[in-house]
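Q: Hi! First time doing this. I have a protein sequence and I read that you can turn it into a structure. Is that right? Here it is:
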Amino acid sequence: MTSNDHPILVSAEEGLQRLMDGNARFLNGTARFPTVRKDVLAAMASEQHPYATIIGCSDSRVPPELVFDANFGELFVIRVAGNVLSPEIAGTLQYAGVHLKTPLFLVLGHENCGAIHAALDVKFRNAAVPARIELLLQSILPALEEIDAYAEPAIQVEQAVEANVRWTMRQIAESAEGRFRAAEGVYKLVGAVFEIATGRVRLLEQHA
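A: Yes, that's right. Below is the predicted 3D structure, encoded as structure tokens:
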């Protein structure tokens, strides 16, 4: 853990560029950190200064540290099925904002997400799921209000993955902490989708 009064060393814009540069290295096979570097860990044993907080899915195919070719201490990663926002996730985000002061917050969805498939099955096909999974899916269903019930299943999933990322972003932006950080002028909230088949991270266009 670290104190809450350290300076911001990397701007949100620079942080986002670092993420996308790392994804480019990941794509072309020139990742810089393929092995554990104990000297790096030892140097940061007493504190951390991540430049980005990432809310991603728990899917085993989407590890943010690898996807963005990031070193130890660079990313504060929160992973939960469907990259949803629960009270526990919100509390972790607040810690990242208040204590770590990361300037960049990235919500990272991914193609062919199992949680999205399940939520669509519940919404459009009256699927039954275990109680705990149903509770998780309740956090996704509000994002699916504008999904076309008559679209092809593959199109529904593609649209729903992006809609769910935007729904999580909206909840963060509208929270008291999100509004406060936005007013500070050093905070950036970005959405993206990881394309598993190619390894590319696609940034979502910002809606007004």
